[in-house]
C-alpha cells in the first residue's frame, strides 16, 4: 500500500508533472507526418531519446508514459531508455490499453479494449522497469451522445485495468477523456464530465481499487472546439475545479490533466489558473500533457540531428512553464523566456 502511494505522490510532486510520450504507431506517424519525417523504428527511438535526455528535465517532469515499443528500446549508447529516465530522476510508466474500438450497438461511440492477457503483460512491464500504467477511455459529446451505456462500459474497463495494475504493484493512471470536438457549450461539457467521473469512481469502488494508490487523468471542462461561445481561462478553471470537487474523492493523491488539443499556452494558462485560485485543493492539480509539451520540440527537431539542442530547449521551456503553472506563478510574459532561442 505505502509503496504505491509513494509512487503516486512522487508523480504529482510540487512543481512537477508527467510527459505523455505514449503515442501508438498510428498516432506517432501522424505527428511525424506533420514534420515530414518517416515513422521508422530508428526515427521514433532517436526522437524519444532526444526528449528523455533533455538536460534538467527531471526538475519539472516526474514521470514519462511510454508506449510498448519504447519501453524495450535503448539509447544510441546502448543504455535502456528506462534507465536514461531513471538517471534524470524520472519514473517510467506504460500505456497498456489497446486503443478505443467501436462500441457494439452504439454507433459513433467507442470502448477501450486491452483487458485480455493484461495480468501477464503487466508482470512483464514490471520486469522492464515500469512503475505506473495508463489506460484511456474516450467519450464523445454529440447529438444524443454520450449514452449511459458508453459511459458505464468504459468506466468498468477503466476500473478493471486499475485493479489489475494495483495487483501487479503498479500505480494506475485512470484517463476518462471527454473529447473537446464539437459545438457543445461548456455547461454541457460540465454535465457529461461529472456523469462520466461519477461513473468511473463508482466502478473503482465496486472493483476495490485503492484510491490512495492511483492518479486521475481527466480532460478539462471546456467549450466544444466549434462552439461559438468560448469560455475564458478563469471560467474553464473554475468550472473544471467545481466539477472535480463534486466527483473526485479527496483520497486520490493527484489529478493530472491531458491537454486534448488545446493550444500549448492555453493548456498552461488553464492549469495555472486552477492552481492560482481556490487553493488548497483536496488533491494535487497537475499535468500529463502529450501535444502541449511535445509540439514545440517536435517542430524544432524536424528529424535533424543538428536541431537536437533546439528541440531540447523547447521541451525544457514548456516543462518549466507548466512547472510554474503547478504553483500558479505562470504568466504569459514567461513564454518569451526561451533559453537558447534563435
Ligand atoms: C489524450 O491523449 C493523452 C494526452 O495527450 P494530449 O495532452 O496530447 O491530449 C495521451 O497520453 C494519449 O493517450 C497518447 O498520446 C495517444 O495515444 P494513442 O493510443 O491514441 O496513440
Describe the protein.
- The chain has 342 residues and is of the alpha/beta class.
- It has a single domain, classed as TIM Barrel (Alpha-Beta Barrel).
- Helices cover 44% and strands 14% of the residues.
- The chain has an 8-stranded parallel β-barrel with strand order 1-2-3-6-7-8-9-10, surrounded by 7 helices. It has a two-stranded antiparallel ribbon with strand order 4-5.
- It is globular, with a radius of gyration of 19 Å.
- The mean pLDDT is 97.
- The structure holds 2-O-methyl-1,6-di-O-phosphono-D-mannitol.
- 2-O-methyl-1,6-di-O-phosphono-D-mannitol (5MM) binds at residues 20, 22-24, 27, 65, 99, 136, 177, 258-260, 289-292.
Structural class call reads alpha/beta
State the end-to-end distance: 48 Å
Bound molecules: 2-O-methyl-1,6-di-O-phosphono-D-mannitol
Strand order of the largest sheet: 1-2-3-6-7-8-9-10
The CATH homologous superfamily is termed: Aldolase class I
Under CATH, the topology can be stated as TIM Barrel
The oligomerization state is: single chain
Rg (CA only)? 19 Å
- Which regions have little confidence, pLDDT < 50, spanning 5+ residues? none
Number of strands: 10
Q: Average pLDDT, to the nearest integer?
A: 97
List keywords for this structure.
342 residues; TIM Barrel; eight-stranded parallel β-barrel; two-stranded antiparallel ribbon; 10 strands; 14% strand; binds 2-O-methyl-1,6-di-O-phosphono-D-mannitol
Question: How are the SSEs placed, and which strands pair?
Answer:
Blueprint: H1 2-11, E1 17-20, H2 25-33, H3 41-52, E2 61-66, H4 68-71, H5 81-87, E3 91-95, E4 100-102, E5 110-112, H6 118-127, E6 132-139, H7 148-167, E7 171-178, H8 186-206, E8 215-216, H9 233-247, E9 254-257, H10 264-276, E10 284-289, H11 291-301, H12 308-327
Helix pairs in contact: 7-8, 8-9, 9-10, 10-11, 10-12, 11-12
Bound molecules: 2-O-methyl-1,6-di-O-phosphono-D-mannitol (5MM).
2-O-methyl-1,6-di-O-phosphono-D-mannitol is lined by residues 20, 22-24, 27, 65, 99, 136, 177, 258-260, 289-292.
Amino acid at each position: 500500500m505505502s509503496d504505491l502511494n509513494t509512487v503516486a505522490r512522487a508523480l504529482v510532486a510540487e512543481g512537477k508533472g508527467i510527459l505523455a510520450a505514449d503515442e501508438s504507431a498510428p498516432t506517432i506517424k501522424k505527428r511525424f507526418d506533420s514534420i515530414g519525417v518517416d515513422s521508422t523504428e530508428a526515427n521514433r527511438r532517436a526522437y524519444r531519446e532526444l526528449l528523455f535526455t533533455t538536460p534538467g528535465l527531471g526538475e519539472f517532469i516526474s514521470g514519462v508514459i511510454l508506449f510498448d515499443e519504447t519501453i524495450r528500446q535503448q539509447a544510441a549508447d546502448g543504455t535502456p531508455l528506462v534507465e536514461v529516465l531513471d538517471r534524470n530522476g524520472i519514473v517510467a510508466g506504460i500505456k497498456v490499453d489497446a486503443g478505443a474500438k467501436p462500441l457494439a450497438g452504439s454507433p459513433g461511440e467507442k470502448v477501450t479494449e486491452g483487458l485480455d492477457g493484461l495480468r501477464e503483460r503487466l508482470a512483464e512491464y514490471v520486469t522492464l522497469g515500469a512503475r505506473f500504467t495508463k489506460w484511456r477511455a474516450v467519450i464523445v459529446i454529440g447529438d444524443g451522445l454520450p449514452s449511459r451505456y458508453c459511459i458505464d462500459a468504459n468506466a468498468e474497463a477503466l476500473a478493471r485495468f486499475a485493479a489489475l495494475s494495483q495487483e501487479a504493484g503498479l500505480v494506475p493512471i485512470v484517463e476518462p477523456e471527454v473529447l473537446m470536438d464539437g459545438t457543445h457549450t461548456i455547461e454541457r461539457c460540465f454535465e457529461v464530465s461529472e456523469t462520466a467521473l461519477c461513473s468511473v469512481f463508482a466502478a473503482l469502488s465496486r472493483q476495490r481499487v485503492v484510491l490512495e494508490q492511483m492518479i486521475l487523468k481527466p480532460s478539462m471542462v471546456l467549450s466544444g472546439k466549434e462552439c461559438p461561445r468560448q469560455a475564458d481561462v478563469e471560467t474553464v478553471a473554475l468550472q473544471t475545479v467545481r466539477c472535480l470537487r463534486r466527483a473526485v474523492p479527496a483520497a486520490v493523491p493527484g489529478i493530472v490533466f491531458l491537454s486534448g488539443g488545446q493550444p500549448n499556452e492555453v493548456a498552461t494558462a488553464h492549469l495555472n489558473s486552477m492552481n492560482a485560485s481556490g487553493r488548497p485543493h483536496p488533491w494535487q492539480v497537475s499535468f500529463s500533457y502529450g501535444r502541449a509539451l511535445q509540439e514545440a520540440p517536435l517542430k524544432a527537431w524536424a528529424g535533424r540531428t543538428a536541431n537536437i539542442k533546439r528541440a531540447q530547449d523547447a521541451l525544457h521551456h514548456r516543462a518549466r512553464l507548466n512547472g510554474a503553472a503547478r504553483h500558479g506563478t505562470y504568466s504569459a510574459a514567461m513564454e518569451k523566456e526561451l533559453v537558447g532561442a534563435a
